[in-house]
Amino acid sequence: MKFIEEVVVEEFLPTVRSMLAEDLRERGLTQSEVAAMLGISQSAVSKYAHGEVARNEVVLGDERVTDLVSRVGEGLSTGDMSRVQALIEAEVLIRRLETRGDLLATLHEESMPELADHEGEFRIHDPESELRTTERVLSSVRRGLRTLENASGFAGLIPNVGSNLVECSPDAVTIDDVAGVPGRIFDVKGRATIPGDPEFGVSEHVANVLLTAREHGSEASAALNVRYDPSLSALLSENGHTVVEFEGEKDLDEAIAAALDSEPDATVLAQTGGFGIEPVIYVLGEDAPAVAEAIKPLLR
Questions:
Q1: Which of 91, 104, 127, 248 is 20 to 30 A from 17 (CA-CA)?
Q2: Whether 239 and 201 share a structural domain
Q3: 33-75, pLDDT tens digit by residue?
Q4: Are the CB atoms for 48 and 23 separated by under 8 Å?
Q5: Contact of 83 with 39, CB cutoff 8 Å
């Protein structure tokens, strides 16, 4: 794991400092004056001046970097720019270069190829970035799955069609915004078998149930399906859940809409089955771990 700060320290800063030292020396400043302005030792300035510090050619050739060096060099040498302003100007450029596809982000991806697997634009430091959001959702699903794996007897709750544990991003619109298990969780010889690490866009059925519930007023961000039994519905109700049951013959989307119209705070949607339709319970919750915890009373 390599932090983008390491890329800045190892690739960007030595190059920019050497460029600034060179620029300031060309403007007539002494080695000691350059050292004082840059906050480094005279020996470091000497190393920069004699090419003893490795410089990144990509950083050297970027026009925004050369423009920054020129503006800061002129400002510092004339006294029109303070060291604080010079620092701010450099920091602003660094943050811009961290945007997906830009100089620092590209260098970061080269040193950490896993970042290249993520689509879309993002800044590694942005607390609201899509990358951070999706990674948090995936992490949440993993925690929920670990709870299910460690729950003795969970395999007995898996319906014939299999189970899936899903969680969506805050502004989810389609199943591509919902993370779940690729394929489904099946009961294999009394053991819940999870075929792979969670991904986005791999669950159609349970993801659609979650999205439909959210579309009709539910505040849930996660869902899990387990087998239906009247006693299980009753037990969930006894443990504080608002349970709504509906017949399987109805269109699922319409049934969920009607269920939430009658019980807006419903956290359990129980499809009681029908001809050719397996009865299933859908448990809704704030996140995947919460949903996984919610079914624990069913294991007693």
A1: 127
A2: yes
A3: 998 988 889 998 888 877 888 898 999 999 999 999 998 999 8
A4: no
A5: yes
